[in-house]
Amino acid sequence: MEPKSKFPGVDKEVLKLLEANMDEAPARRRAREAFKDIQLSIDHILFKTPCDGLEMKEVYEVNSRGLEIFTKSWLPRTSPPKAIICYCHGYADTCTFFFEGIARKLASYGCGVFAMDYPGLGLSGGLHCYIPNFDQIVDDVIEYFSKVKGNPEYHKISSFLFGQSMGGAVALKVHLKQPTEWDGAILVAPMCKIADDMVPSWFLTQILIGVSKFLPKNKLVPQENLAAAAFREPKKREQTKYNVISYKGKPRLQTAVELLRTTQEIECRLKEVSLPLLILHGEADRVTDPSVSKTLFQKATTSDKKLILYPEAYHSLLEGEPDEVILQVFGDIISWLEDHISKSKPTE
């Protein structure tokens, strides 16, 4: 008797693509191409937003560092966008699975949404989930979003950063490098500090930092199951398996060192955060520390800031919570955008 398939109803030839080594982009691209319609057909609230009125475009472009970067945009088809939202995705992730549903929802509201996969993640070129230098990711993100914002059609509309988890750290670093370039930021469970439960002991951390100088790409860092820690609802946690190009191995040594270094830097620079902020965090988050979101709210120098904590909610507020919580989080985001698009829109 054959073992029960992890993906019921999926063709065996398609499943063979998942057996390939996903370290390099071509294998990830083949797997995503085969699975993209299957992903959108799963029973998740994010994929129930109609997209008939949206124009979606996927592009590969070579950036100034010679890296092939995957980008995607979602735009309302019948009218100019009210604002542009530039999205920064989380660790091990991509902008082509769960974020597809988030982007459609925001674009249906009237915003133009733009996203890219970081080098080494999703469909972009590079060794899977290898981050040799976090600041290089930030510079790559700035390069792409500056190109988006340079479009003459968008000069007179508001632009916002939107960062989830590690993407929250990316968004904050983008702001710190471009302190006056953005009209606000939406941060969902931002990685200003990795939760203590997710970090190895101090002694083991020092050993790993030392070893990373010699074996930076090796996968040696112990880690709890991220889906179990991030998704509260069991059915949605099970659906994470359909994110077939997400990175599922142990963190690479240099990647882990860069994440730790970046969170330590951001934690020391919270007082430099000066743009309008919406911070959303689950009180039961065991991946990124909600107490640091509270500290960010307190220390950020902007007077235009809002922190919303969701009781009992885990890390993945827009993907892994019960439907009513996901809708509440979306409602809070749209409400904040409505207020800030009208506030920050330049006068003619």
Automatic annotation (TrEMBL):
Coiled-coil residue windows: none
UniProt xrefs under InterPro entries: AB_hydrolase_1, AB_hydrolase_fold, Hydrolase_4, MAG_DAG_Lipase
Source organism superkingdom: Eukaryota
Pfam families according to UniProt: Hydrolase_4
Limits of the Serine aminopeptidase S33 domain: 80-322
PANTHER family assigned to the protein according to its UniProt record, in alphabetical order: PHOSPHOLIPASE-RELATED
Protein name: Serine aminopeptidase S33 domain-containing protein
Organism expressing this protein natively: Trapa natans (Water chestnut)
